Every structure is written in C-alpha cells, then in structure tokens.
Amino acid sequence: MTPRPWGLLLRLILYPVLGVAAVVLPVVLWNQDWAILAYTSSKTYQLFELLGLCAGAALLVVAAVELWPRRRLPWPRLVPGLLALLVGLHYLVLITEYSNRPWDYQCYEYAARAIVAGGDPYDQSVYSFKYTPLPAQAMAWLYRGLEPAGAALQDHMGSEGPVGWYLLYYLFQCAQLLLLLGAYAMGARLAARLGLAPLPAAVLSAVLLLGNGQVLRTLRYGNTNLWLLDLALAAILLLDQAAPLSGLAAALGGFIKLYPLVLLGPWLLTRRWRALLGAAVGLGGAVLLSTAGGRDWALWQQYLGFFSDSFYKGYVFRDNSLYSIVYNLLRLTGLRPAEALGPGLLRGDPWLNGTVLAASLAVLAWFAWRFWQRERGWRAARAAAPQDGRRGAFLRQTGHAVDALALALIVSPMVLEYHYLLAVPLVIWAAARRGREHPWLVGLGAVLSLALPTFDFFPLSLHRLAGLVLLLILTRPAPGGADYAPDPAADLAPPAGPGPGMGRA
Fold first, then answer.
1. Which of 16, 20, 373, 419 is deepest in the core (most CB within 10 A)?
2. 213-221 and 103-116 helices cross at what angle (nearest 10)?
C-alpha cells in the first residue's frame, strides 16, 4: 500500500523527535538526584543504562507505529519491520555494554585532545592515530560545543573524569547505533533493487549485521568502520538518483579512511561527471574547512610527515593485505630475515616492496579485465534491449562499485578484520546475482569474510581474503551481456517508503 500523506508527515516529525529524545533524555536524567534513579557500577555507566531505557522505548514506539496498522496483513509483510527492531535492540544492548572507551576510540580522542591543546595528533608515543586530520578536528569541534554542558554536569561525576569528553564518547556510541540501523535499511534496499523480494532482502541484510563478527570488532574497538559502510552503501544507492550526493558520500568516507575514494575510479572511467563533481566539492570543502579556508595547513603537514615516515609497521597475521602476506611469507620461510625487511611501507626491503608491487599490479590487471568484461556485456545488452537501459545501468554501476571496494580490501597496505565491513555490499551483490545458482558457495564466501572469529594463525588467518576472492570469482562478469538480461522479478525502482518494511500504512 502507498503511504498516506498524513502518515508520512507523522513519521517525518515523530521519528526525529524520538531520536533526539532518546539521546538527550538520558543526559537529563543522568543529572537528576531522584530517589527512583540509582546505579550499581559507576556513574558513567549509568548514562548508558539510561540510554538503553530511552532508546529501547523509542525503538518500540517506532515498531508500534509501523506494525500496528499492518497487523492484519500476511506475516511476511511484518518481517522487515520486526527485523529492524531486532537489529536495533540487539546492538543497543551491546552498545550499552561497551561503555568503556576502547583502544581505537582512545586514539581518536587522543588526537582530538592534542588539537584542542595545540599539540601534534600524530605523536605516536602514547596512542596511534593514522588518519587524516578531519575526524580528529570534528571531534575537537564537538568537544568545544559540549564543554559548557560538561562543566555543568561535572559535579555528578566526582573524580571519574572530564564530562565533556565522556559526553563526546556517548554521542559516538549513539551514532554507532544509528549507523547500524541505517546499514540494515540500506542493505535491504540494495538487495531489493538487485532483484530480491522484500522479505529475503530484509532477511539477508539483517543476517549480514547480526552474524557479522566485523561489526562486533568495530564496536569492541570503538572504530569508525560503520561510517565507511553506511557512506559506501549511500554512494551506491544514490548514484542513479542523486549523483552529487553519491560523490559527497564517497568524499566524506575518504576523510575517515581512504577506502571509499576507490569509487571515484569507475565513476571516472564511466564518465559519471555529476558524481565526480559532488566528490570534488566534498573533498575541496572539507579541506577548506579543515585548514581554516586554506590558511592553516599545519595538521596536514603533520599527517603527510607521519604517512611518509612511519605509516605502517604492523605485520600481524590477521592483516589480510598483500603487504602483510608477502612480509610474513618472506620472514617465515627464511627467504629474508625480519631485521632486513625494513621499518614500514615506504622504507622497506626492496625484495618485499618489489614483490608487493608485482602482486598488486597482477590484482589490478585482474580487476581491469573484470571492468572491461562488464562494460562489454553492458554495451551488448543495451544494444539488444534499449528499453531496459535504466536497469542495466544500475547493475553496471553497482558491479563496478563492489569490485572497487573489494580491490581496496586487497591492495591496501593494511587490511585488518573490521575493514571487511566494506565486503558487505559484495556479499549482497553475490547473494542477489548468484544466490540462486550457487547458494552454498555464496554462503561460504560470506562466512569466511564476515562471520568467522578473528585469530592469528598463519595462513589460516587469511580466511577473510579467501572468502572475498571466492565471492569475486562467483560474481565474475558473464560474457555476452547475460548479467543484464530482463528479470521479471527485479524491481530496480527506488522503494516508495523510507526503508524496508517502513512507511507503508
């Protein structure tokens, strides 16, 4: 059913109000000395317990608004909304439990504190901040905005630390929950646009989040990979409807970590100028904002100095990058002693860097062949059925996008386990395009890349890369345009409502 105008208006007003209340009300309650409010572990943890109360109530209200009008419909129509509630409540529990600031988040906060104090965020003597200055700058700006509220709440914290920084971490965790809900909605929408019916599309998206070890690692370490996943999904989904916003999403993701910028490659080769313009505006605007309008480049100079001097010194087995694989093969086989392999990416042993370069060029050649095969098939399909061009264009661009993200996961000099959240679009692509033909192989690729626990046991710890390669082999472009043949079950038009199972009365 199409949503009634008043119902859509209700949602546009109610849901933002509920979201703001779920975040703000816990802080308000945290500042009260009511007899009916208590805590059992610490004052800081009480804030997250109150978040569990308020955000949990907000999720239940949203579920009631969405599901009650459809209570008499067949049960499959209710499943997407119930799965959204399940994803939200499941990760709300985990986010409230992960209330202590973990290592990766402390690295971000350390860099933000250094910026606030006028220091060097890339000083590696205490914490290791490896990213562009913008994420730390954004945290510093937010902290300055939160500082007055933190000062007002300080009496309730006692000696447990500056409240402003703790409020910043609280907002970071609230954003993680919102990003997970967004990933569910966008993952289900992508699967539906690739041809899956609404019910299996929603189930697939939920399973890829609930059974995803990389999500848990991201939450455990307080990393920013959920931002990358959401921005990558947004860039894929918006390309044919709002190309400048698609480019903007890729640009913002590139300032968090460089991976999403690989999307600019296929856009350039397929002449998606509006998306590239959005990316250029996003990149240029963010740099101007980060440098005070181009007047202060000190942080970027520090970043470039860190990048060129000591960007990468880790060779853990769980790192599935070509660099780590070659390094450990040379070291464990005795072909090169560890002390001869050098301190990092740009100053390493010539044997090591030469082998990595050769392997990277071979991978690039493979992906170039895939690009050429997909382009040739798309042109053949367009010539055979011009009326089906919109559908074929979406499949073409999505195939290029998931390949680009997979390429980044192979040739990047550091690919730790939680970076594999960027493999989620590839799993959705493989399930939608090859799931009927090879369900067990698609499932195996998904389990290897996303679901297995993390361990350091060479070479078994390369299972994520093995799963990724399996999915890439399964989704190799079919010759002759078979990938773009008309599919009566496919509905590649954007859904009418705001998300899977949402917005329909």
1. 419
2. 40
Report d(CA 53, CA 38) in Å as an integer.
13
Going by C-alpha positions, the residue among 294, 346, 291 that lies closest to residue 133 is: 291
Helix axes 273-290, 243-256, angle to 10 degrees: 40
Residue type, 227: W
Task: Label residue 177 exposed, middle or buried (CB < 10 Å: 0-12, 13-18, 19+).
Answer: buried
Mean pLDDT of 163-174: 90
Most confident of 46-50, 289-293, 441-445: 441-445
Written as six digits, the tokens of 371 are 């690009």
Q: Which residue(s) pair with 499 in the sheet? A: 502
Q: Tell me if the bond preceding 459 is cis, omega within 30° of 0.
A: yes
- Using the structure block, give the residue that is written with the tokens 């959401």: 230
* Domain limits, the chain: 5-205, 207-484
Q: Provide φ and ψ at 502, rounded to 5°.
A: -115, 155
Burial annotation 289-318 (CB, 10 A radius, 16+ → b, else e) = ebbeeeeeeebeebbeebeeebebeebebb
pLDDT in tens, 356-408: 889 999 999 999 999 999 988 888 877 766 655 677 788 889 999 999 999 99
Cβ-contact 452, 213 below 8 angstroms? yes
Mean pLDDT of the chain: 85
pLDDT-derived band at 439 (thresholds 50, 70, 90) equals: very high
On the question of pLDDT at 210 being above 70, the answer is: yes
Beta-carbon contacts of 142 under 8 Å, excluding residues fewer than 6 positions away, are 168, 171
- Within 8 A by CB and 6+ apart from 471, the residues are 406, 423, 426, 427, 430, 442, 445, 446, 449
Q: Which residues of 218-228 are buried (b: 16+ CB within 10 A; e: fewer)?
A: bbebbbbbbbb
Please report the pLDDT score of residue 485 as a whole number: 62
Is pLDDT at 492 greater than 60 in this prediction? Answer: no
Question: CA 451 to CA 213: how far, in whole Å?
Answer: 5
Q: DSSP string covering 43-77, please? A: HHHHHHHHHHHHHHHHHHHHHHHHHGGGTTS-GGG
Contact present, 195 and 387 (Cβ < 8 Å): no
How many whole angstroms separate alpha carbon 283 and alpha carbon 296?
Answer: 16
pLDDT attached to residue 414 = 86
